[in-house]
Each structure stands twice: as C-alpha cells, then as structure tokens.
Amino acid sequence: MPVSVAALKERAPGEKRVALVPEVVATLVSNGLTVMIESGAGEHAFYSDDDYKKAGAKMVSAAEALKATIVLSVNRPPTATIAKFKKGQFLIGQLRSLVEAEDLENAARRGVTVITLDRLPREVSRAQTMDVLSSQASVAGYRAVVAAAEAYTRYFPMMMTAAGTARPAKVLVLGAGVAGLQAIGSARRLGAQVSGYDIRAAAREEILSMGAQFLEMGSVSATGKGGYARALTKEETAKQQKELSQQIAKFDIVITTANVPGRKPPVLVTKETVAAMAPGSVIVDTASGPFGGNVEGSVSGERIVTKNRVTIIGSHIFAAQMPSAASNAFAKNMSAVLDSIIKEGQIVIDPSDEVITAMLVSVTKKGAAK
Ligand code: NAD
How sure is the predictor about 229, in pLDDT bands with cuts at 50, 70 and 90? Predict the structure, then answer.
C-alpha cells in the first residue's frame, strides 16, 4: 500500500498557513504517495480544494486526515487531536517541543513517531532544505518591515522633491538571526538608514555585510550552544536594557527579533525606554507571544499606541500574515523531510541519520521522554 500523507487544517488563532501546497502535493503524488488534505486547509493561503484536487490530492474530513500514516501540521495540533494518533502513525511539524512537550511525549509513549522541526540540527548542511525555522523567520523579518512601514507616517527613503527634502527613517533591528538579517535587508531595500545589534559575536560581521551599521554597546557578548545566543543573567539583562535605553530614542523604528531557543524571549526594550521615544515612532516586536516578548507592553497580534504616541505592533506569528509565501516554503521543507524518511515507497527511520534522529521526540525510559 502506498504511504499516505495528510495535511491538517490549522486551528490556532490567527494561523493562516498550511503544511502542504498544491505544487508540493503534485511532487509527492508523482513519487507514489497518497496525499490527503483536510478540506479548506489552504483557504487562507489562497489554495482552494480544487487546486489540491488538480494536483492529485484527496480532500478529506479532519477524521479521515487523522487516519493517514504521516500527518503534517504547521503548529502543534490541539491536545484532543494529538490524543487521536495511534501507534505506527507519524506526526511532523513545527511542534514547539522545546517549550512544552507533554502532549508529544504522551504520543511518543503510545508508539507515535513525533518529528518536531524545532529540534532541527541547523548546522548540518543537509538539514538546510528542511529548515522551517529559517524559512518562516525569513518571512517574518520581511513582514515586520512591511508592518513598520505601514504604521510609520513618514518616508523610509530620503526623498528630494520640489516641496523639500525628507530625511530617511532611522531603523534599528535588535537580534540579527534569520529574521533580523531579513529585516535589515528589507528595510535597506526600502531606503532606510539601518542599524543592527545582537549579542552573538558572529552577528557583528553579518550585520555589516548587509550594509547596515552595528550598534556598538560595550556590555554583553553571549554566544551559547549550537551557535545560538545563551540566556543572559539578570545583571547582564539590566545592563543591556540600560545601554539600549540610551540608544533607542535616536531611532524612528525599532524591530525586535531576539530569541533564545526554549526560553522566554528576552526583554530588550523597557516601558521607560518606550516612554523616551519620539511621538510617531514605531516598534515591531516579532517575539511577542504567549510567553512575553522583547518589548514591555507589546501584545501579541495587537497594535497599541502608547500615551507618548509610540505605536507598538506585537506578533509572534508574522509568517502567518503572508500565508501563501510562508506555506509554500514550509511545504518544500516538509517535502525534504519526507524525502529523508521515505525510501522506495517505505518509511525508514535510519538510526544513523543525525538530522532525523535529532528531531524525534523519543521515550527514553518508563515514563520519561526527551
Ligand atoms: P533565534 O530566532 O533563536 O534568535 C534570533 C536572534 O536573537 C539571534 O541572532 C540571537 O543571537 C539574538 N538574541 C538572543 N538574545 C538576545 C539579546 N538578549 N540581545 C540581542 N540579541 C539577542 O535565532 P535564529 O534566527 O533562528 O538563528 C540564530 C542562529 O542560528 C545564528 O547563529 C544563525 O547563524 C544560526 N543558523 C544557522 C544555520 C545553519 O547553520 N545552516 C541556519 C539558520 C540559522
């Protein structure tokens, strides 16, 4: 029997992405897989049920989709949905296992193979085609700049007209990983004067190579495991916030993208710092979510105007605001994962495959999973 793969309709509030797009469905079908898509799953990304059918997919109910051998999901499905997975099935997606893993561990204990892309070993070059963290962060970085430009009531580029000259916007990007570097590039393409900052030593060169200035701050350097940042101590955080507060008021727009894997996002911009910014300034907090954000007072999914008339835009799923581009990239990443585990029509988890094994939520001993 051909391996069956299904994509679920996403149910998280504000989520508009879908794990498979028609173009990728057509490739999977031509590779001999049976593909099922939950009806309406692509609606918000402008992929209709008809588009999927033309690509060779079967449109099914949620209950039918959950019978597929491999079930793909952008986000972690709700607890009740995960509870329906049976032994021998696979659940694959960006399942946030670093934040809370209980549902996934329970599924693994029942014999479900859970592959979570937030554990992808990104330093392995073969993993790059599967890297949903990068593909989605890149969309988010771009989208954050578009949101900032839309909320800002002046020009990004320098404008010289018969009615006078407008100076370019000064943009500061805090956190220069994938999203931050994409934000720097996008803000520069719009003509802004851009500065960037990060605590990883390697980020300085990357910021400069994008043609932006590096915001010099004496205090903290904090490269951690796997090339990521480590969490700062309380003292380091206080020092960083103080130093940033002395710099941020010079900028018209601040875009924050700082994260530490599996931890709450660090607070970089305090209420006092926001209060010192000029009216009309804009802050976009891409780290804003249920666990806080980089900016005190930012609310996920909301646009707030403070008393001193600074606009704060908070969202932790900016990628979902460009669902077509984000889903397209996500689906291609999923296709690369499937290529790694399906050999000649059979699912094979090779224990020597360092990329796939790193992403498995596995049960190590009775009652414990990692
Ligand atoms: P991320 O989303 O976890 O964090 C975003 C950025 O926030 C990081 O650059 C981090 O250093 C920064 N940050 C954290 N705490 C901060 C603080 N207190 N102040 C300022 N900045 C802070 O990271 P990401 O974008 O997913 O990726 C980060 C790392 O992963 C980088 O080293 C990147 O080069 C690496 N990476 C490697 C590959 C690869 O090897 N193929 C692919 C993608 C990313």
Answer: confident
184 CA distance to ligand 1 middle (Å):
14
Determine whether 115 is exposed, middle or buried from the number of CB atoms within 10 Å of its CB (0-12, 13-18, 19+).
Answer: buried
CA of 258, closest atom in ligand 1: 7
- For residue range 113-126, list pLDDT tens digits in order: 999 999 999 999 99
Q: Which amino acid is at 272?
A: E
Q: Which atom of ligand 1 is nearest to the CA of 125?
A: 41
327 alpha carbon – ligand 1 mean position (Å) = 22
Cα of 294 from ligand 1 centre, angstroms: 14
CA atoms within 13 A on the CB side of 349: 16
pLDDT tens track for 164-177: 999 999 999 999 99
Q: How many residues does the chain have?
A: 370
Question: What does the pLDDT read at residue 227?
Answer: 74
Q: Is 368 exposed, middle or buried (0-12, 13-18, 19+ CB in 10 A)?
A: exposed
Is the pLDDT at 368 greater than 50, yes or no? no
